[in-house]
Amino acid sequence: MTHAPTRALPLTDRTLDQLPPGVSAPDYDRGALRPGIVHIGVGGFHRAHQAVYLDELARRGETGWGVVGVGLHSREIGEVLHAQDRLYTVVERAADEDDARVVGVLTRYLYAPDDPAAVLAVLADEQTRLVTLTITGTGYRIDAHTGDFDADDVHVASDLEDPGRPETVFGYLVEALHRRRAAGLAPFTVLSCDNMQHNGSAARTAVVSFARLRDPDLAAWIEEHVAFPSSMVDRITPTTTPEDRDAVAAATGIDDRWPVVTEPFRQWVVEDSFCNGRPPLEQVGVEFVDDVTPYEVVKTRLLNAGHSAIAYLGYLAGLRTTAEVMADPVFRSYLTRLMAEEVAPGLPELEGVDLAEYQQVLLERLANPQMADQLARLARRGSTKIPNYLLPSVTAAMEQGRPHPLLCLAVAGWLRFLRGHDYAGEEVPIQGPRTDLVPVAQEADGDATPLLSERSIFDHVGQDPRFAEPVQRALEALDREGPREVVERYLAGDGRPAS
Ligand SMILES: NC(=O)c1ccc[n+]([C@@H]2O[C@H](COP(=O)([O-])OP(=O)(O)OC[C@H]3O[C@@H](n4cnc5c(N)ncnc54)[C@H](O)[C@@H]3O)[C@@H](O)[C@H]2O)c1
Ligand SMILES: O=P(O)(O)OC[C@@H](O)[C@@H](O)[C@H](O)[C@H](O)CO
């Protein structure tokens, strides 16, 4: 993270006692933490979510679940964590006040490309009982429609050829499981904490499919002995900015080079299926259930689909954060009605969850004026989010014979965004994995057909006139009138198909 230099003391074990009284520091003996967990992908979200729950557990005297952080792609976070004795600050930013704590559960951080042998050694160590993942939705290489693992990748090929020097998460997990099996050790549980439905199944498919390419016997052993529970994770965590760092230094007098700013809300629902013990996370508010599916469906179709809808349309309209979007009555009303009229009617009943209240709370979370959550962050990886989060609501609406113009407008927003520039001619931030869609969108100009024909994203829905025609109309309207004007007109009922 780039930033302005500051004169505050650096955050380390030695400066912990200089934190102001309002900032809570770890009150447990960090040296006594036993590393029961390896986490791969130590980004903002892991640090604001899973690590905070584990920090609370350590504060209650549960010292068996320290975390060894592993990065496959990001060297910078490791350098910062090393300099700070693996400490960092989490700021919970409510609309009216901040609450800050320093988290101390990271016992070690390893940047895998520098020392793959050390990462394999810790994964194969008997002490490691749980491996958690935040490697992004695309990290699993699972096709959204076929559900198959895509092994067509140079890094996957390299891991199959040279298992002792892995490059991918599958290479690391499978080699470590191979070593544990050979040593007669129990395997670890693999717990995905990425936003995707059936994330446990995705992790299982990826790991077992990779193992099958390497050694079918090992694959069979993994299938039989390794648990891959699914989990639903929720806590909106924007990308840390230099201003966040400055604000933390100003508030605490201590310079944390990479704090995390997040919202007060958090939720973690986990399928209670572990093969080598688990942390007693129920003590700190984690819900263990038999089946997380309805929780995932409700969260991804309301929150994540809502995020995608406002990200593309909002960005094209010149807005940059969710707070800006929610401060605009037209966009706020768009999101409110998208959820209530077109998404919620297609959702399953979820015992104990009042869907109307869920939406109300969500709208309040998104409107938090202090949280500058970047639309650019929400706009990432549209090619996986549109099929996983938005299209299921389109399909449900079509099956139930309900109109769905606001969903079609959201999809049209993504197709327009893929042209690479907004209506002021400014470049828009497009991040992989399907950057090859940009020239397709540019070539097609206002024609939605070439993109809707992408079967890997739209499947047969892209050819269904009940979807394709309103998306085409919405795309043309966006170009003709501009995003805010079209949203306003659709809210007035003008986007609905003639009955
Ligand atoms: N930020 C949030 O609000 C939030 C909330 C809920 C869930 N999540 C989940 O957490 C994931 C990470 O989000 P974040 O906000 O921490 O992002 P981030 O960019 O801060 O961190 C992403 C991490 O994943 C690693 N990574 C990316 N691709 C990988 C791959 N193919 N293999 C291994 N590691 C890989 C990166 O190196 C980085 O450490 C998201 O994909 C999302 O599914 C995020
Ligand atoms: O993390 P992604 O890229 O899958 O999705 C972006 C956001 O929608 C997501 O990170 C939410 O902030 C999060 O799911 C809230 O719990």
Summarize, please:
Keywords: NAD, Oxidoreductase. The protein has helices at 44-48, 50-59, 75-83, 116-124, 154-161, 169-182, 199-214, 216-225, 242-252, 293-316, 322-327, 329-343, 355-367, 375-378, 382-399, 405-417, 437-444, 449-452, 455-458, 465-481, 483-494; strands at residues 9-10, 37-40, 67-71, 88-93, 98-103, 106-111, 130-133, 189-192, 231-234, 254-255, 260-262, 267-271, 287-289. With 499 residues, the protein is an alpha/beta fold.
Radius of gyration: 23 Å
Biggest sheet character: 5 strands, parallel
CATH class value of the largest domain = Alpha Beta
What small molecules accompany the polymer chains? nicotinamide-adenine-dinucleotide, D-Mannitol-1-phosphate
How many separate domains? Answer: 2
**N-to-C CA distance:** 53 Å
Helix count from the secondary structure assignment:
21
Q: CATH superfamily of the largest domain, called what?
A: NAD(P)-binding Rossmann-like Domain
Class derived from helix and strand content: alpha/beta
Strand content: 5-15%
Spatial ordering of strands, largest sheet: 6-3-2-7-8
The CATH level-2 architecture of the largest domain is identified as: 3-Layer(aba) Sandwich
Tell me the overall shape.
Answer: globular
Query: How many runs of DSSP E, i.e. beta strands?
Result: 13
Helix content: 40-55%
Instruction: Quote the average pLDDT.
Output: 94
Low-confidence stretches: none
**Topology-level CATH name of the largest domain:** Rossmann fold
Family: Belongs to the mannitol dehydrogenase family. UxuB subfamily.
Catalytic activity: D-mannitol 1-phosphate + NAD(+) = beta-D-fructose 6-phosphate + NADH + H(+)
Domain Mannitol dehydrogenase C-terminal: 291-478
Domain Mannitol dehydrogenase N-terminal: 36-282
